[in-house]
Each structure stands twice: as structure tokens, then as C-alpha cells.
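Late entry, evening session. Most of the bench is empty. Finally got around to the prediction I had been postponing all week. Sequence below, unchanged from the version circulated by S.P.
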Amino acid sequence: MTELSKLDLLASKIGSRHVVVAIYGLGYVGLPLALRFAEVGLKVIGFDIDADKVRKLNSNESYIERITPEKLLAARTAGFEATSDFSRTAEADALIVCVPTPLDAHRAPDLSFVTNTVDSLMPYFRSGQLLSLESTTWPGTTDEILAPRLRAQGFTPGADCALVFSPEREDPGNPDYGTKDIPKVIGGATPRCLELGTALYQLAIRTMVPVSSTRAAEMTKLLENIHRAVNIGLVNEMKIVADRMGIDIHEVIRAAATKPFGFVPYTPGPGLGGHCIPIDPFYLTWKAKEYAINTRFIELAGEINHYMPHWVVGKIADSLNEQGRSVKGSRILVLGVSYKRNIDDCRESPALEIMDLLRGKGAQVAYSDPHVPRLPKLREYEFDLESVNLDSESLRTFDCVVLTTDHDGFDYDLLAKESMLLVDTRGRFTTAGNIVSA
């Protein structure tokens, strides 16, 4: 059997739905994708270095709120299993990497999760396999980081293996667009790679969007997230200006949104959160320097969004001062620690930065979040806190309540009535009496 025929065999396995899929990284992106492939009847092996996650998944225990034990049981019945044993890479036909791509302390890309994962699977890689990267990264990563690792082991993308980049587009908490519904961008190292990657993902995703190269796919994901980051930066800056002028920015946005063309409403908040929007733009600014380009527009938006938690803390301090109190010694309750409403994901949440800043100023900080009963271990912060139950009695024990994430599960009438001072960063309340907009 020739090496080329092994790619034909891969195509045959995909076409007959006998392809075995491996997912590396079973977090908010990898686990939903694994369950989706299992849902359409494929055998799926999930890899994660966290032994506790592996144990929980194989016991039908979920660590992501929207993924129920029933969904895990259905997936495992269909053939899904989790493991930390990378030698099982040899059992799979398609290998999909869904690991984090954070920034380091100097806001430069940290690809260690990607490189460590690929280096861990490479000893077991074989001819006829497809390798797909979904982690958001700078244009050129697939060509410059993954392809050389394959070639160093004697593999050539498009000849005896396939290499593609297909960025994740998960939107946790979105009731209208799940994994199968979101169109999937994909670029291949060669046309043959693109053909095989598209055929694989088409088994689980309704709409595929092929592009000319892995670099085009990588840039597509960055443009999507930079578009949001820049527009959020703009509206956050507008909020600061409007606040100084005594204008309700939320009223202005609602009015502007009535224009049927040429305007897309973005809402301000306490800062940017999640693993994408606060981080991904800096992957492009870093890479652009290689081409002697300064991405000033992107970096300015990043500065504004990074400043917002500090601005909120300033508003809290000013509001407490007006009541004759200082931040130091005050009991402050933060409402919502996930980065967006109605989910349990705390990654890069501005609420945590606000809590840390307040604690640094001597406040006694607590939080309440119906989706996060206890704060998980975090790389950036050290909190040992559980969610506070909200009722009239508990609210009256706090000098200030700060709405940072506007979950639908909060009782907003109760909050408005019982909070001694309520600082609203989301525009859920009308400013009056004990309620301050921030």
C-alpha cells in the first residue's frame, strides 16, 4: 500500500463514517465538539492532562454547566471515552487540538499548550492521519509550528498525512447557535488537506466555509474577535465620555440602534472577558511586528478595555465617598463572576479583576453568582470564596453591591430595593437614589 493510498483510506473512512476522532483538550471548546462527533455516531477519544476531568467524564460527571450528565451518558453510550494516555493517539484517524492559547506576562503569545500537546502526540502519529488545530493563534502558526514538527518525523502534509486549521467559534450560553449550527471556517496546508478536513467536519457541522490557506483561516478568526474588541473599546470609551457629560450611554445606544442601516449596537461593560476577545487581538499585534507594522488601532482598543475595571473601581470609590465611606473596610458584594451572562465560565472575567483591585484597596469582597457556586482555582488570582445567597437580610450586610454580570437569574427588583448602594456596570437599572451607573 502506497503512502498516497493511506490518504485515500482516510477519505474512505470519513465517507463511511468509520473514522475515529481524537479531541485534545476537553474544555469549553473541545468537550462540546467531542460530544457532537459522538452524537453523529463516530467513535471519539477525548484527551486531557487533567486526570480529574478524565475521571469525571468517564463517570458521567460534568464540570461545564451546560453539559448535563445525560449528554455525557449518551456520548459514552455512543462510544466516547476520555483518557490521559497519549499513546492512544495511534487508534485515531483525525486528531483535533483544542487547547488554550493565552498571553504570557509580557502580552506575547504563549503557544506552550499547543506545542506541548503536539509534541506529546507526535511519537504516536502515523501515516494517514489528519491533524487539525482549532486554538486561536497568529497567522502562520500551522505552517511554521505544526508543519515542521510533522516533517521532522518524516511526514509530509498532503502526501502521507493531512494538516488543517479550523478555528473554534463556540458561543457559550447562546440558545440559537450550538456547535453544529455555527458555520465552520477551514484552511488546509494543501488542497488535499482541505478536502479531507472539510469532509471530516461536514459529518458534524452543517455549514463549512473553506478558505485558501491555513493562514487565511487563522486571520479570519482574529478579524472576528478584533472586530468585537475594537467596537467594545469604542463603546466603553463613549461610556466614560457620556458619564462625564451626565448622559445615559444606554439610552443613546438604544436610540442609535433604531437606525435600520449603518449601525451595529455594542453595549459597554466593566471590561472584556472570556478566553478570546481580551487575548486574541494581541496575537496579531505581536505577529505584525515581524512585518514592521504597528497595529495602533487594535492596541488602543486593548488599552481602553483593559482600563475599564479600574474605571469601575473608581466609580465605586466615588460612590462610597458620597456616603461618607472609604473603600478600605467596606463590605462589597460583586454580582456575577462569569465573563458573560448565564454561563459558568470565569476565564479573563473583568469581575475578578475588579474584586482583586477592591481587595487591594482594603475592601472585604464577596460575590454572588448562580452559575458559579465556588470560585475555581485561577492562575491570576487567589480567592477562596463561595457564592453568597441573595435575600433581603444578606444584601443589607453590604455597604456596596456591584453588578458586573447581568445573569437572568438575579432578582433585580430585590437588588434595587434592598441594596444600600448599587453600582450598575451593565445598564440594567435606571439611575436613581441608591443606584449608580458605572
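Two things to note before I forget:
The radius of gyration is 24 Å.
The chain has a mean pLDDT of 95.
Will write this up properly tomorrow.
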